[in-house]
């Protein structure tokens, strides 16, 4: 692994996804239906979207660049292509209850007059089913990662993959009989994908584990083992991301007592860095003590759709406060979470100021 500058910069994963490419209103529809581009032109259009995302990240000066996740509809659906998973005939989710919902205020959608006259029905969620042994059968993101490597010119490459615990909780198990066994099978399958990424020289491989926060109580006993099985043998730099969910859907995020526990859990894994949502929930530096000896990728960009672009000084102040707890060699700057639903101008202005803040921090602490 090559060394990073102080206060290395990166986004979590997704960048602005062009409206000419995808219909943002269909993000939670069946995988694949949100694309606006005809199938015969889709790959070329996605290539162009990746080029734009990388161009913006390198123009801003970020240390790492992702492909903006431009080829993905959601952060999870891309990985339902593992063997043993049936995405067509989905099953009813019965373990959806979370540990932190009381700390989140969801954005209200418009109610039609017809809906207003009906009693509210309990929500029903359906997810892909596990119908046989979970296996890795083909590359899932490795081809896209190769295109990223070819496209980057100044930035290091970063690729994100859903974590095994979070993917397991998005599946309806009809084969293994226990959630931990689903997670371990997912981890072993994902490890083969991560080894492909490692072999091609990806600089940073990140597993996204939001469920370590949302449904901590359901996976705290086995998440560390699952994550370490997924990371087994990986020589590239490793990161874990844990968050509060997309700001597109959440109006207010408050600090939760579960989040420190989630970070403590991730600190027990073999990861090199933990990527945190910090800005929008207005976390305080004491939270960072839970990361132990891991590097911290501090979320300094509030991605609420109504949030203004952070000034350079605001980001510098946030980072300097964090330095009361985290050594300067282990503090990096990032976005709170994915940015796909924001405008390109807002995304670019935010990441540009983040990099400018990093440069100022290097002047102060270099």
Automatic annotation (TrEMBL):
Residues 124-359 form the Cobalamin-independent methionine synthase MetE C-terminal/archaeal domain. GO terms for biological process: methionine biosynthetic process. InterPro entries: Met_Synth_C/arc, UROD/MetE-like_sf. GO terms for molecular function: 5-methyltetrahydropteroyltriglutamate-homocysteine S-methyltransferase activity; zinc ion binding. Coiled coil: none annotated. This is Unannotated protein. It comes from freshwater metagenome.
